Amino acid sequence: MTQGLVTKLLVANRGEISCRAQRACKKLGMPCVAVFTDPDALSLHVLQAAESVSLGASPKEYLNATKLIEVAKSTGCDAVFPGYGFLSENTEFAAMCEDNGIAFIGPTADTMRMFAQKHTARELAERAEVPILAGSPLLSSGEEALEYAKKVGLPVLLKATGGGGGIGIHICRSEDEVVNNYASASRQGAAAFGDAGVFVEKYVQRARHIEVQIFGDGKGAIVAFPERECSIQRRHQKVLEETPSPFVTPELRAALQGAAVRLGQLAKYRSAGTVEFIVDDETGEFYFLEVNTRLQVEHGITEMITGVDLVAWQLEQQGAKGTDLPADLASFTPQINGAAIEVRICAEDPAHNYRPCTGMLGLVAWPTSVATRIDTWVETGVEVSAYYDSLLAKLMVHSPEGRPPAITKICAALEETQLKGVTTNLEFLRVIAASPAYAAGDTTTKFVEGIDYSPHAVEFLEAGLQTTVQDYPGRVALWSVGVPPSGPMDDLSHRLANALVGNDDHAAALEVTLTGPSIKFLADTVVAVCGAEAPVTLDGAAVLMWQSFGVKRGQVVKVGATTGGSRAYIAIAGGLDVPEYLGSKSTFPGGVMGGHQGRPLRPGDMVPLGATDLSKLVLGATVPPAWRPQFCSGISDWTVGVLPGPQADPDYFTPEDIQTLYSTPYKIHHNSNRLGIRMEGPRPKFARLDGGEGGSHPSNVHDHVYALGTINFTGDMPIVLMVDGPSLGGFVCPATITTTELWKMGQVRPGDAVCFKKLSIQEAYERRFRVDRQVALVCQVARGALSAAAADADFAAYKVDMPESPPTEAVLRVIPAGGAHPGAQVRLAGDRYIFLEYGPMELDIALRVRVHEIEQYLADKSIDGLIETSPGVRSVMIEYDQRRLPLAKLLQARRCCFGPWTIEEAEATMKPADDVSLPYRVLHLPLAFNEKYMRSIRSEAPYLPSNVEFIAANNGLEGDPIEAVHKVLFEASYMVLGLGDVYLGAPCAVPVDPRHRLVVPKYNPARTYTPEGGVGIGGTYMCIYPMASPGGYQLVGRTLPIWNPFTRTGPFQPGKPWLLRNFDQASSPAPPAPAVRYYEVSEDELERLRTDFANGRLDIKIEQATFNVHEYNEFMKGVAGEYEELRQRQRVAMAEQMALDAEMLKKLDARQASGMHHAPSVAVRLALGEHDEHPYEGQDGTQVTAAVTGTVWEIKAEIGQAVKAGDTLIVLEAMKMEYAVTAPCDGTLKHICVQQADMVQQGSPLCLVV
Question: At the N or C end, where does the chain have fewer CB atoms within 10 A?
Fold first, then answer.
């Protein structure tokens, strides 16, 4: 049929049916328009559309008929495809389309009215001589319903007349249920369909749900397709459909099709529809159920066995150009070609009454070895919202050979399908498809009730304070772009726990912080708990830590509060089956990545378990006491081994500073977490007055890559950078904790004292080998491959084959400057890294080019054991695995790295820097210039309250300070010299023109919060924050997101979610090459642009260019005089601001020494010994105390309020986590002895309940 009347289609729906309609339009060569609401902005139906229109923020806009008509008109659409659900069976919408000259792809409004009410549809079926079940007209009360129920005979169904999808249907087996359920059915019908009408219908106890697809020409010609078996349902909604039905005989098929045709002819049905029947499984009798006046969800399997494209038929019937629709429907007879099966994959939890589940799909993978049809709207990275139905995909298979091969195919397809991150019914569908009852075709509407299903998963009844999924070693080889490894804070306990249950080192386990979870196991397995001491129970009975134990389906494991350390680890045989992100399952909450939904676990979370053979595991496997980490009890001293470097020599710290580092205990600060462990101790004197071009504070240096576990002086505060910490920054690091000692920093608690002990390279090397051996032996014992006695004997006899190691010095090699070579130093940075630094401590882009060249040289060598090179401004951090590549070999072997010959060899193979030209990109980014987004833990500093005014003052800028900074910022051309400067691809970017190089110190101490997209200046560098995080840059505005987790939109490379690359430029035109301009926008405009960019609707301008070092050097010579004048002004201004900061720090020290920033609370006075430790002694009631050291974040209850046991009274913040303090019993809150923002110590009294 080629009428050619319809030229453009509006798809007035969402999700997979929108994608299906778009495919049909593409096949017919017809343009179409998709619509979406804000929650659906990144749905595949939007991203795949050539044209899409937003309906607005409200998720209900798909029901806004007026707006849909407006969109159709404004986009030139002359037809609307409603799909199913939403307005697909809305007679008013169909009429509105016709009234506006827009073709409605479906039946006429009059036809829909005939079948809209179930009771009137029954009347029409009777006229068409279609069998119906005994029932009633519309009812007015529960009592009337009971009268008809008695006539029909129990059991009966109460049905909402406007219902669909199982809504408003109640099975009533007793008279009481009829009366009681009437109001519920009426209410559900009114809420869902705007019709409170209810009627009674006879209930067939062993029923099948079988339906016939019809297609009519609107004049009386009806095509009836082979029946679909839809009996496998939950909550009256279909789970699995197939065609043809294994139950239906040819005679029954003819009767079903005949009934459907008669009904369609009577109604003069147009387009696609479905006549649904109830078939008595015992007698084969069938009865009319309803007519769906729309395309059915399961239409695809009918298409597969008949070769018909039903959507194309619908479009061509309304005039779309095509050749699918037969010219004469009356003469068309569909033929059955084999069998087809469809399963509906839904975001729901079958173990909990199919409750809907939401969240991010971290992995979506469809079958590749089995021929399947997949109708879906999801892919990896899609957020499943709570606003719409739970259907994620329809998985369909077809076999021309019939049903048994089709079953084999659907089982294989389900096994190969992966959807991770959100709980789905995928495992449940596998059980159904593989069941003998399904294979036998014994499938009534009660089929799923006979399935014994329990997911291979765990359920969190309580989540604990902060329980996360972590694997070892976390994310590897992404440090160079600012992706932290994450993983366990105490990797030793984590690895031993995994070994006890026979897991590989890399299996994902649970990290428990301070207080553990309560976990219900939904499958048999083996568990082990290691780490800081904590009470562990199995169904209330105590079990031992450091020893594996069996858990049966339905049992509960509970881990209490830790003592002697901060963290414990729960390993489960097979590991936790969460999706990998960037090569690891570890949770990085700050980046909302990895683990379960990128966050700590919550009550109600379901986490799947990996597959394993439990029969091969030994219960009761134990870690020998001598092999366990040695924990401290109470407020304790920890001795932690370190190696010097990279900034340990006298250039940065005085000898007295280094002596203090190794001789003075440092106290653990309460504001410590997985990012870093803050410490309180003596303030260094430093060997420099300032950081030069790196910043005005002596702790500042040109940005360089940090080693994991390094001791980083952020201003005057030492912070051990931990597994979620930043990779690139501009602060000095005098020492780095060794690999086998870092676990201790994962266990320290606020108030603990830490003493650092310098180890030798050889000691660090040997310890790592010995730990590896212990872990491997425990795993062999757990797997039954070795006895405990044999493992002890093996380790006692174990000798590490120690290679020669260089002397343990901060500077391992010095390469003198000479000729074209700027000179270099190779510095030690712990036992996993060495640090190569070029030239003098000056900012020289030519040095950064040399760093790039040496990186390329090393990459070309493919050195075994060389993990990653990570560039800084004038340095490169080289990570290596000492077990495969010993340090001596790394330093000395010819053609390996930095031996006395190979540096010369490397330089000989590289062009002189002056001859190098590098490609780069120019990015045009919007910037909202402002001074907001600050949150500091200092109340006074030169940079408060205005960062921008401070930048002007610190650089001696003349005139209005805001205008002066604004001018430089929008004129400057910034070149990206490194990534990860504060995390996740954040740029360390320097103005190409030195006259634009503003110099400022970073916050001291670091700011506690910075918004994602914040733009700041620190040292000489510009940075864009890719995530909300602490930070030290002086903020000047905000721009677009530069991190896209799943690279689904925008100019991001697959698998590389960072926007920027090294040598990119971001700002305005400046010699010697054109560069990107930060163009100014308002804050409101920026928010719109940010939304559009995140949703793939904004294309930023990106240009390709070439950076020539020789041309740049010539340019630098030409502006050298002006640059030196700027530096002179900056030196004077910086000295003034440093003096001001010193005065303010003295005031801060004085307040800290007095123990208060404000009037001390009872809890603070208690900590200082200034008050009775028992303020409620002698009073009736129950004293509530702080379980952790932290600050009072929120007081949730009021004095005099009645409380129940478990009610939250106070929320504490500790280690960047919120800890709820709950009422221990029912009663009345009599007294509160703390205030918001008070610091409290563990055990301090908070309030009294009587």
Answer: C
